[in-house]
Amino acid sequence: MTGPLAALDFAVADAQPAEALSARVGRALLQQQQPQRRGGGLFGFGRSPSPPPASDDDDGRRSAPPPPPPRRGPFGRPIAPRGPPAPPAAPAPRPPAAAPAAAPRKPPAPAPPARRPPPPPPPSAGPLYASPPPSWTAAVTLDPATQYGDVPQSFMGISHEWPFVEELAARPEYIDLVRRMGSFGNGPAVVRVGGGSTDKLSAVPEQRVWDALAKLHREAGAQYILGLPLERMDGPLARAIYLKARQELPAASILSFEIGNEPNFYGGGNEYVRCCFVRDWGRFVPQVACDDPSRGAVDSAVGGAGSDLSSCELGVFAGPAWGHVNIRPLTLDWFLYSHGRWVDLATVHWYKATSQTYNTAETLMDEAPVRQEMANLRELVKVASKHGKPLRVAEANTISNSGRDGVSNVFAAALWTLDASLEVAAAGGSGINFHQGAGQNLYTGILRWTERGTGKLNPPLVKPPYYGYLAFGQAVGSGSRFIRTAATAGLPGSLKVYPLSERASGSVRVVLINKDGARGGTVGLRLPSNGKALGSLPAATVTRMVAQGSSPLNVREPDAMTLGGTWLDIGGVVRGTPATESVRPVAAAGANGGGGGNGGGEAAWRVYMPPGSAAIVSIPRF
Do 469 and 507 belong together in one domain? Predict the structure, then answer.
């Protein structure tokens, strides 16, 4: 088995009838887990009308619905079974003939053994993606000799509220999904524990939470950014949580402690930021970091003159945990100038929009907001670097306040997740953590669900954003740098191009994302042929992240979206057939030479990009 999902340390499940039936039920369950569907609530419990979406720090349990009616396709049409028809049912045994009146009655003949029911039909038929005629033709010339911006190890991560975070280690399937995020050699996943629940903590989390976090680190390699409450200025509580974490978790598992959550939304908003936030943070952190807080309490903007920090731990905290990447660079500079001694990681958050604003799968692909916000993020990275600190987007997702149905839980969210990860990396960020809420929000990549009545935790459901996590891991591999784009021609605004060079092999990997859900096109990736004949240049391997049908951005069925030909069923079981495409180089238009050689010119690998899709184009070093 080959392909991006097969590269991980797990096997494709055999197509046994019981497993296939479980997968079919799992797919049907997924279809009911959407709000505002007739006769069902947020998770299909039969509540009507649907309840409002949970908040980002929602900690309520929701259980699984009963088995639903037969599955329908991405667009509501019934899916016809593929393959040979099921064998006919066994005929009922004929009753024994009546005996003559004079003869003794014979016992009836035993019924033949019951036949096992036929296996369920395979998943939806059809090609992996639609391929309408190209609407555009573009060319991108790459300059592999000019590289910049290493993608840091452990760049990819998730963020989870304090409630129910222990369930990430409660079943092996959850642990495995966290482990897979780092299975391409790019370092273990970073799990940021916190969010809206951080400032609501009123006691040290129970022992089972720490045991689970230790287990997740031990078995999946997870590393942690742990949230400590700030808003109520309860220094003793934050200190107790800090010491408990130090006691229960291996030192190597803790990257940082994040103080508070989104202080720009504390009471008073901007006025609080102007008057009080930096002052309060400086008064609060010595209560957490110092054995004798009174000695480290003076922490002025001119360097803390008069402070005795001999009993304090410095450089172990993250902040300011700002609610959006649009924080003014001057504000971050002020914060790090005042408190840089305590900080080892600058953190901000990023959502495309709030759930209260109008959004669709198509508007999620809008490029203008991304350009504006990433321009500001680059400035924030420069400010953090000036103070010697990395900057991480410690909480991110499509739509805040739990997400939006039809936006955060469809294939468009997988494309946005991949695009957002590469944008942050290209801007110089040290990583990104995609928020899961308490595990049941609409934007969740690893969906937690429990049985109704018993509360038993079931295997996780894999949602569209998770495909973006894996695609990013495959793209950057064991370590990559960005390659300069020398020139472009005919490039539509909907096509994103991220050229990378893998440090270990020197191979070129180009991530292409077509954010237009209706139109496809062809892009030629040009590289210097270095005087070699076209016939001696290697073919490119194209691994696609795609969805079926004519409206791919809106697809939500699990078996209708694939990465490298395979999809993830309930519990993360790999289904489908691994598939990649091979593209041979041709002489680039206008390049010198031609025929069998390229005379020192350029070769082009021409890749078709379907509507609403992504591709990882790998060109071996030559």
Answer: no
Contact 71, 81 (CB under 8 A): no
Give the pLDDT confidence of 24-80 residue by residue, as tens digits. 444 444 443 433 332 322 222 233 333 333 445 443 333 344 444 444 443 344 444
For residues 437 and 487, membership in a common domain is answered with no
With 0.85 as the threshold, say if the pTM is over it: no
| pLDDT tens, position by position, 132-177 | 999 999 999 999 999 999 999 999 999 999 999 999 999 999 999 9
Same domain for 224 and 351?
A: yes
Do 447 and 534 have their domain in common? no
**For residue 49, cis peptide bond before it (omega within 30 degrees of 0):** yes
Domain assignment of residue 77, yes or no: no
Q: Which residues are CB-neighbours of 564 under 8 A, at least 6 positions away?
A: 3, 4, 5, 6, 474, 543, 544, 545, 578, 579, 580
Which 3-state string (H, E, C) describes 8-72?
A: CCCCCCCCCHHHHHHHHHHHHHHHHCCCCECCECCCCCCCCCCCCCCCCCCCCCCECCCCCCCCE
Q: Which has the higher per-residue pLDDT, 347 or 108?
A: 347
Is residue 119 a part of any domain in this protein?
no
Contacts of 100 (CB under 8 A, 6+ apart): none
Do 221 and 368 share a domain, yes or no?
A: yes
Q: What is the pLDDT of residue 125?
A: 54
Last residue of a domain, one of 445, 476, 507: 476
Which structure tokens are listed for 248? 């229960």
Range of the domain at 516: 137-146+479-619
Task: Single out the residue in 476, 508, 530 at which a domain terminates.
Answer: 476
Compute the distance between CA of residue 202 and CA of residue 199 in angstroms, rounded to an integer: 8
